[in-house]
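Lab meeting, item 3. Inverse folding demo.
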């Protein structure tokens, strides 16, 4: 399954408590909570380029399945991670105590971030 496309955020669960736990300042949390972010994914075989634009903030990461890479977290911190492909539609990564699972089903991408007992879920649709 190919992940390439642009996806617009449709809904999210637990945004505020999760961002607080990550250490984002309250003003950034308040600004970001109602913005419909756009995620653009370009997949070329095992190589991925992911750009997430939330208002004026742009988060850009590139990785190759199964290879260590440096990824930027929501806080701006850069961490080393390995992204694995499970089945043909799930990308799984562990970033400094945070687990990210991105699953593609048709035109819907569900991204679930888990840190300890907190879970943040984002659902985006292809545009």
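The presenter then showed the designed sequence:
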């Amino acid at each position: 399954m190919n992940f390439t496309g642009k996806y617009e955020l449709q809904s999210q669960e637990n945004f505020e408590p999760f961002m607080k736990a990550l250490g984002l300042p309250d003003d950034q949390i308040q600004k970001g909570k109602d913005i419909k972010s756009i995620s653009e994914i370009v997949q070329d075989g095992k190589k991925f380029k992911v750009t997430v634009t939330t208002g004026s903030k742009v988060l850009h990461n590139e990785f190759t399945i199964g290879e260590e890479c440096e990824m930027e977290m929501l806080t701006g911190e850069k961490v080393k991670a390995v992204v694995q492909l499970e089945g043909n539609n799930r990308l799984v990564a562990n970033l400094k105590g945070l687990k990210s699972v991105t699953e593609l089903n048709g035109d819907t991408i569900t991204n679930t971030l888990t840190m300890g007992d907190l879970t943040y879920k984002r659902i985006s649709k292809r545009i």
